[in-house]
Design goal:
The chain is mostly helical. Helices cover about 60% and strands about 0% of the residues. The chain starts with 19 loop residues before the first helix and ends with a helix.
Length: about 160
Protein backbone atom coordinates (compact mmCIF):
# COMPACT_ATOMS: atom_id res chain seq x y z
CA UNK A 1 0.00 0.00 0.00
CA UNK A 2 1.40 3.40 -0.94
CA UNK A 3 1.24 6.56 1.11
CA UNK A 4 -0.18 9.72 -0.41
CA UNK A 5 2.19 12.58 -1.16
CA UNK A 6 1.82 15.89 0.59
CA UNK A 7 2.29 19.05 -1.43
CA UNK A 8 5.20 21.27 -0.36
CA UNK A 9 3.75 24.42 -1.94
CA UNK A 10 0.42 26.07 -1.38
CA UNK A 11 -2.19 25.97 -4.08
CA UNK A 12 -3.75 29.26 -5.12
CA UNK A 13 -6.92 29.05 -7.14
CA UNK A 14 -8.21 32.34 -8.55
CA UNK A 15 -11.83 33.11 -7.87
CA UNK A 16 -13.69 34.17 -10.97
CA UNK A 17 -15.09 37.68 -11.14
CA UNK A 18 -17.81 36.41 -13.42
CA UNK A 19 -21.20 37.26 -12.04
CA UNK A 20 -24.02 35.18 -13.52
CA UNK A 21 -26.67 37.49 -12.13
CA UNK A 22 -25.34 40.48 -14.11
CA UNK A 23 -25.46 38.44 -17.33
CA UNK A 24 -29.04 37.38 -16.60
CA UNK A 25 -30.00 40.99 -15.96
CA UNK A 26 -28.57 41.99 -19.37
CA UNK A 27 -30.59 39.27 -21.10
CA UNK A 28 -33.76 40.19 -19.22
CA UNK A 29 -33.41 43.90 -20.01
CA UNK A 30 -32.68 43.28 -23.71
CA UNK A 31 -35.69 40.97 -24.07
CA UNK A 32 -37.85 43.54 -22.27
CA UNK A 33 -36.63 46.25 -24.69
CA UNK A 34 -37.58 44.08 -27.68
CA UNK A 35 -41.04 43.43 -26.23
CA UNK A 36 -41.56 47.14 -25.56
CA UNK A 37 -40.45 48.05 -29.10
CA UNK A 38 -42.83 45.46 -30.51
CA UNK A 39 -45.71 46.80 -28.42
CA UNK A 40 -44.94 50.38 -29.47
CA UNK A 41 -44.73 49.38 -33.12
CA UNK A 42 -41.07 50.43 -33.52
CA UNK A 43 -39.96 47.10 -35.00
CA UNK A 44 -39.91 47.12 -38.79
CA UNK A 45 -41.94 44.10 -39.90
CA UNK A 46 -40.86 44.47 -43.55
CA UNK A 47 -37.22 44.20 -42.52
CA UNK A 48 -37.95 40.97 -40.63
CA UNK A 49 -39.84 39.64 -43.68
CA UNK A 50 -36.83 40.31 -45.92
CA UNK A 51 -34.58 38.39 -43.53
CA UNK A 52 -36.98 35.43 -43.62
CA UNK A 53 -37.21 35.39 -47.42
CA UNK A 54 -33.46 35.74 -47.95
CA UNK A 55 -32.57 32.89 -45.60
CA UNK A 56 -30.35 30.56 -47.63
CA UNK A 57 -31.27 27.17 -46.17
CA UNK A 58 -34.47 25.34 -47.02
CA UNK A 59 -37.16 24.84 -44.45
CA UNK A 60 -36.49 21.75 -42.34
CA UNK A 61 -32.75 21.65 -43.04
CA UNK A 62 -31.91 20.85 -39.42
CA UNK A 63 -34.46 18.09 -38.86
CA UNK A 64 -33.09 14.76 -37.72
CA UNK A 65 -34.90 13.01 -40.57
CA UNK A 66 -32.90 15.03 -43.11
CA UNK A 67 -29.48 14.19 -41.66
CA UNK A 68 -27.05 12.19 -43.74
CA UNK A 69 -24.45 10.10 -42.00
CA UNK A 70 -21.18 9.27 -43.68
CA UNK A 71 -21.11 9.21 -47.46
CA UNK A 72 -24.56 7.77 -47.86
CA UNK A 73 -27.92 8.84 -46.66
CA UNK A 74 -31.51 9.09 -47.65
CA UNK A 75 -34.12 6.41 -48.22
CA UNK A 76 -33.21 2.77 -48.83
CA UNK A 77 -34.60 0.98 -51.85
CA UNK A 78 -37.33 -1.53 -51.11
CA UNK A 79 -36.61 -5.24 -51.42
CA UNK A 80 -39.12 -5.53 -54.27
CA UNK A 81 -37.26 -2.89 -56.31
CA UNK A 82 -33.90 -4.55 -55.59
CA UNK A 83 -35.27 -7.94 -56.69
CA UNK A 84 -36.56 -6.43 -59.94
CA UNK A 85 -33.23 -4.67 -60.60
CA UNK A 86 -31.38 -7.94 -59.98
CA UNK A 87 -33.64 -9.63 -62.53
CA UNK A 88 -32.89 -6.92 -65.12
CA UNK A 89 -29.17 -7.17 -64.36
CA UNK A 90 -29.01 -10.97 -64.69
CA UNK A 91 -31.11 -10.92 -67.88
CA UNK A 92 -28.31 -8.84 -69.39
CA UNK A 93 -25.69 -11.30 -68.11
CA UNK A 94 -27.54 -14.27 -69.64
CA UNK A 95 -28.03 -12.64 -73.04
CA UNK A 96 -25.85 -9.69 -74.07
CA UNK A 97 -28.54 -8.37 -76.43
CA UNK A 98 -30.97 -8.04 -73.47
CA UNK A 99 -28.61 -5.84 -71.46
CA UNK A 100 -30.42 -3.09 -69.54
CA UNK A 101 -28.98 0.37 -68.88
CA UNK A 102 -30.05 2.39 -65.86
CA UNK A 103 -32.47 4.35 -68.06
CA UNK A 104 -33.95 1.11 -69.42
CA UNK A 105 -34.42 -0.23 -65.89
CA UNK A 106 -36.07 3.03 -64.82
CA UNK A 107 -38.46 2.98 -67.78
CA UNK A 108 -39.41 -0.65 -66.99
CA UNK A 109 -40.07 0.30 -63.36
CA UNK A 110 -42.16 3.29 -64.49
CA UNK A 111 -44.16 1.02 -66.82
CA UNK A 112 -44.82 -1.35 -63.91
CA UNK A 113 -45.96 1.62 -61.81
CA UNK A 114 -48.34 2.74 -64.55
CA UNK A 115 -49.80 -0.79 -64.73
CA UNK A 116 -50.30 -0.70 -60.95
CA UNK A 117 -47.75 -3.37 -60.07
CA UNK A 118 -45.55 -0.88 -58.18
CA UNK A 119 -46.07 2.19 -56.06
CA UNK A 120 -44.67 5.17 -58.02
CA UNK A 121 -43.26 6.70 -54.83
CA UNK A 122 -40.76 3.86 -54.27
CA UNK A 123 -39.17 4.10 -57.73
CA UNK A 124 -35.58 5.35 -57.36
CA UNK A 125 -33.87 8.01 -59.47
CA UNK A 126 -31.58 7.15 -62.40
CA UNK A 127 -28.50 8.10 -60.34
CA UNK A 128 -29.55 5.68 -57.60
CA UNK A 129 -30.00 2.87 -60.13
CA UNK A 130 -26.60 3.65 -61.71
CA UNK A 131 -24.93 3.53 -58.29
CA UNK A 132 -26.74 0.28 -57.48
CA UNK A 133 -25.54 -1.27 -60.78
CA UNK A 134 -21.94 -0.33 -59.94
CA UNK A 135 -22.12 -1.80 -56.44
CA UNK A 136 -24.00 -4.93 -57.53
CA UNK A 137 -21.71 -5.70 -60.48
CA UNK A 138 -18.66 -5.34 -58.21
CA UNK A 139 -20.27 -7.69 -55.68
CA UNK A 140 -21.07 -10.22 -58.44
CA UNK A 141 -17.48 -10.09 -59.70
CA UNK A 142 -16.14 -10.68 -56.18
CA UNK A 143 -18.53 -13.60 -55.75
CA UNK A 144 -17.53 -15.13 -59.09
CA UNK A 145 -13.84 -14.73 -58.25
CA UNK A 146 -14.40 -16.51 -54.93
CA UNK A 147 -16.19 -19.37 -56.72
CA UNK A 148 -13.35 -19.72 -59.25
CA UNK A 149 -10.76 -19.80 -56.46
CA UNK A 150 -12.79 -22.39 -54.58
CA UNK A 151 -13.00 -24.62 -57.67
CA UNK A 152 -9.25 -24.30 -58.23
CA UNK A 153 -8.61 -25.36 -54.64
CA UNK A 154 -10.85 -28.43 -55.08
CA UNK A 155 -9.06 -29.46 -58.30
CA UNK A 156 -5.61 -29.47 -56.70
Amino acid sequence: MSTPTISQSTWTIPISNFDTNSKRKKIDTSSNKILMQNNEGNINIEENFIIDTEFQLASGWALKANQKFGKRGGVKMSKKIITLLQGFFHAGNANKSDRYTAHDMLSELNDMAIEGELDPEIIPKVETIENWIGRYSAACKREMAAIVLERQEKNK
